[in-house]
Amino acid sequence: MDLAINPFSSGTRLRDMIRAIRACKTAAEERAVVRRECAAIRAAISEGDQDYRHRNMAKLMFIHMLGYPTHFGQMECLKLIAAAGFPEKRIGYLGLMLLLDERQEVLMLVTNSLKQDLNHSNQFIVGLALCALGNICSAEMARDLSPEVERLLQSREPNTKKKAALCSIRIVRKVPDLAENFMGSAVSLLKEKHHGVLISAVQLCAELCKASKEALEYLRKNCLDGLVRILRDVSNSSYAPEYDIAGITDPFLHIRVLKLMRILGQGDADCSEFVNDILAQVATKTESNKNAGNAILYECVETIMGIEATSGLRVLAINILGRFLSNRDNNIRYVALNMLMKAMEVDTQAVQRHRATILECVKDADVSIRKRALELVYLLVNDANAKSLTKELVDYLEVSDQDFKDDLTAKICSIVEKFSQDKLWYLDQMFKVLSLAGNYVKDDVWHALIVLISNASELQGYSVRSLYKALLACGEQESLVRVAVWCTGEYGEMLVNNVGMLDIEEPITVTESDAVDAVEVSLKRYSADVTTRAMCLVSLLKLSSRFPPTSERIKEIVAQNKGNTVLELQQRSIEFNSIIQRHQSIKSSLLERMPVIDEASYLAKRAASTQATISSDKLAAAATPGSSLKLPNGVAKPPPAPLADLLDLSSDDAPATTSAPTTAPNDFLQDLLGIGLTDSSTAGGAPSASTDILMDLLSIGSSPVQNGPPTVSNFSLPGQAETKVAPVTPQVVDLLDGLSSSTSLSDENTAYPPITAFQSAALKITFNFKKQSGKPQETTIHASFTNLTSNTFTDFIFQAAVPKFIQLRLDPASSNTLPASGNDSVTQSLSVTNNQHGQKPLAMRIRITYKVNGEDRLEQGQINNFPAGL
Amino acid sequence: MQIHFVLLISRQGKVRLTKWYNPYPQKERSKVIKEVSTLVLTRGPKMCNFVDWHGYRVVYKRYASLYFCMCIDAADNELETLQIIHHFVEILDRYFGNVCELDLIFNFHKAYFILDEVLIAGELQESNKKAVLRLITTQDNLVEAAKEEASSLRNIIAQATK
């Protein structure tokens, strides 16, 4: 049947338009046809053409499905719906559901027509209106039309009743308050014989339970009998051709009743007991050779797991899942894995029994099944089986699909970190993962590995040798290269001299130049990224001190990068070259091994930084200008590239063991590198959130060991730093040459001028600074508050906030009352620790609240004028 | 419990039917269609009929050149949804008599009418195929009757004004 075939019609028939569109060979042709049709339809709309209104609407729907805009046809839907005839209404309601969604205001205009149609004498027109309302109604419409729908639930027509019940579901979803109005009718519908009505009523009951606690209680009391009866009837019924699917009468009704039983029985022992028998019957009697039967069993198992079922019933359920798991049908295995995940909470032991099968599923060809299985295996891991499961997963990592490696690697790393009681095992697993899937290992994972190696002095030799072997075999795995190169730089002599051999190890012969070779190869590998190359350069620099005979060769390798187009690498090469060439005296102390990184504080920072990333994401999403949550300027800068920090680590570590005279140059180098940092954050590769973690990781060691005097503060002025960036070479040389003179500047009592930190019409705050010798990062600030008005301030509170790299401690103020026109009458001291001393200046945001004559006052400000070098 | 949307996609990725039971704005809809079709069309024939998608689950089944997809919550019964898809397909098949993709292209509105008798608000409405077919035929007849009446009226008017 075609829509309106009329010999006098202008324009094309629907069928012809579809043909024309299908005949188009290119997208451009299709667009042309659609444009022509749309133009004709628009013209017809503006002429108010009535004869072809519903044919035009059908065309518009087709055009809409192709993805073209059809908003101009929306009003036509309303006109069709308002027409008297059934054909117009039928196509009008279809258009309404297709072209509009509930966000559009046009929908408001249709409420009146809907109301009329819901009261229509023709049940099919009522059906159309119910269907449209059920599919697209908004909260407003739900409120307006709810009484009509409630009335229709009592209708004599089953067709109207079932549609009204489903429509009520939508209404209750939109306006949960209305749930109680439907309780009574829903329960009485459960007595019907018509399956369509029963299914709709059961679904309505389930929705009511979700919407309201009262409804849940009411239904627990009033509908369980009915549900059990329905389920018994359908499961015992003889062959019913109308409802039969694969020998089962109406599996849909089965499933929906089982679902409602789960909702009612959850956390309610009486209800659970009431349905116990019928569940047992369904679980044992249902045929499981067809999908329909399995769907019922699946739902039944879920209900048994969800309610307070007897243990016998639970055993039955777990056994069904076991059968599912060994089924050859992928769909069944998929749902079995899914269910076992939920069953974990109920009975871990029972699930553990299927471990071997589940592990096989991790290796399935189907990614959906693999993912489910992997998640399940992850839940199954415990102290007892961690080692064997990890081995299986790691073995599989070797052969798994590329796109699955990401998930798999993350899960393995997480298992290994969680269950590593044995450091050697942890290292071995990590080395394997790095070798097999180093490109998929997340930054924080290999950072943690470095922290662990740094702490495990007895395993450092083993680590560096294992990593060296892995590096030769799998040099293309980015994070393996990074860890290996880092360890080679730090523990190079252990590699060459076989220090700390373990029993399980086979001795290897590595010469000094072999080690340098390995790092050189990594540096020159075409796919290495900037971070890796920068780490290689640092490693080479360190090796030049560990293996003096190779120094000359390393100098050459480093020098090759002097012309590198990446500024970071170029600058490093030039600086390192200069260190090797001209500063032999300080080199060895400069390049000593890093101090042990404190594991606990690293883990704390790792956790905090993941949190901080999340919260700052949230902040960014919700940030409004001037909001009190907004962070000070210092934080808004992009995080520095990891390289610079790596480097300043290698400088920071020196003071740990060396004596006073050499500390000064080290500090000095730190600032030198601080310069590198300013430009690396602008010129370097896109800094990511993960760099922040690295930064933290590597700066941990620096704070407690820094004990040089703050001699180099002058060099950390941002202004100067910028000017020094462009002509790199001469500046660096100058800076280093100026060492001797700058050491003489050493001044323990550097006085910093007091500043006016804040001044408003009412209040003035001045800061005096004091530094303890030997602790350049720490500053004690004495704040004095002056009331400039003639009224007394009471309840005076001073608050300050600092960027993340600074720590702040506020001591109590000397008083919380600020007398009128008093001079410095209240003081308060603050201790600040700048963890990036010399790289970033202090910054602080302050907030002062007080009361004047009982009225609340609030003042805020930001302090950017701290003297340089704090 | 609820089905969030129904999609019919041809093997070439052309959309043959879309039904949204949640308010998705127009832009979102095309994004969803694109994502779901790439997800579903790339899967091999022996794989299971479920894919995870943004915390939901897409249940799909291929019939000849058409993929029938329904999106449900992750906690819902996938096997039953598969059965609902089959239920819908069987009704289409009986209505059109050996339904093929072309039937659904040229009579797409019929497919929608049938779907509206099977699902409302994303919930199953009728488990009896014959009942659905009876309802559709009755309504088709109503349309035919109205059309005949209109054309006979038109003839009367045409004759009267001759």
UniProtKB/TrEMBL annotation, chain A:
One of its GO terms (cellular component) is AP-1 adaptor complex. The keyword Membrane applies. Keywords: Cytoplasmic vesicle, Golgi apparatus, Membrane, Protein transport, Transport. It is a peripheral membrane protein. Residues 627-665 are annotated as: Disordered. Residues 750-867 form the GAE domain. It comes from the Eukaryota. It is found in: Cytoplasmic vesicle, Clathrin-coated vesicle membrane; Golgi apparatus. Subunit of clathrin-associated adaptor protein complex 1 that plays a role in protein sorting at the trans-Golgi network and early endosomes (TGN/EE). The AP complexes mediate both the recruitment of clathrin to membranes and the recognition of sorting signals within the cytosolic tails of transmembrane cargo molecules. Belongs to the adaptor complexes large subunit family. This is AP-1 complex subunit gamma. It comes from Oryza glaberrima (African rice). The lineage of its organism: Eukaryota, Viridiplantae, Streptophyta, Embryophyta, Tracheophyta.
TrEMBL record, chain B:
It comes from the Eukaryota. Keywords: Cytoplasmic vesicle, Golgi apparatus, Membrane, Protein transport, Transport. GO terms for molecular function: clathrin adaptor activity. InterPro entries: AP1_sigma, AP_complex_ssu, AP_mu_sigma_su, Clathrin_sm-chain_CS, Longin-like_dom_sf. It is a peripheral membrane protein. GO terms for cellular component: AP-1 adaptor complex; cytosol. One of its GO terms (biological process) is intracellular protein transport. Its main location: membrane. Residues 2-141 form the AP complex mu/sigma subunit domain. CDD domains: AP1_sigma. The keyword Transport applies. It is found in: Cytoplasmic vesicle, Clathrin-coated vesicle membrane; Golgi apparatus. Pfam families: Clat_adaptor_s (PF01217). Adaptor protein complex 1 (AP-1) is a heterotetramer composed of two large adaptins (gamma-type subunit and beta-type subunit), a medium adaptin (mu-type subunit) and a small adaptin (sigma-type subunit). Belongs to the adaptor complexes small subunit family. Subunit of clathrin-associated adaptor protein complex 1 that plays a role in protein sorting at the trans-Golgi network and early endosomes (TGN/EE). The AP complexes mediate the recruitment of clathrin to membranes and the recognition of sorting signals within the cytosolic tails of transmembrane cargo molecules. This is AP complex subunit sigma. It comes from Oryza glaberrima. The lineage of its organism: Eukaryota, Viridiplantae, Streptophyta, Embryophyta, Tracheophyta.
